[in-house]
Amino acid sequence: MSNLPLIQILPLPKGILLNSNNTQVSGIDEQSIKDYKPNGQYIVSASSTANTNTSAYNAFNGSEQSFWQCDYQNNPSYNSYKAGYPQYTQDPYNSGQPSSYQGGGTTKNK
């Protein structure tokens, strides 16, 4: 087994959060760890998103309150002009047993 130190990359240290899909991060100590470069530009993207509160960058912030979620047509804030493609017909993360995931991926199974 390697003796290399364990490095937590995300969520970022010191409570620094990604606040958009394109976030510039600075001021994180590199701790003299080889190849650890936490400062710089973080670019996050997703093929779709449910709404602005569930944008892709939230997937890396370690929060159970703000999180990434895919787009779906039955979402009350769904807007075909703003939403990404493809969209799902139902929220696949609604804690249904079993999940109520239905479709997504192509126009044939929306």
Give the tags.
110 residues; little secondary structure; 0% helix
Largest sheet: 2 strands, antiparallel
Fraction of residues in β-strands: 5-15%
- Low-pLDDT regions: none
Give the CA-CA distance, first to last residue. Answer: 47 Å
Explain how this protein is built.
This protein is largely without helices or strands and 110 residues long. It has a domain at 40-110. The protein has no helices and 2 strands. It is elongated and about 50 Å long. The N and C termini lie far apart (47 Å). The model has no long low-confidence stretch (mean pLDDT 74).
Quick summary:
This protein is largely without helices or strands and 110 residues long. The protein is built from no helices and 2 strands.
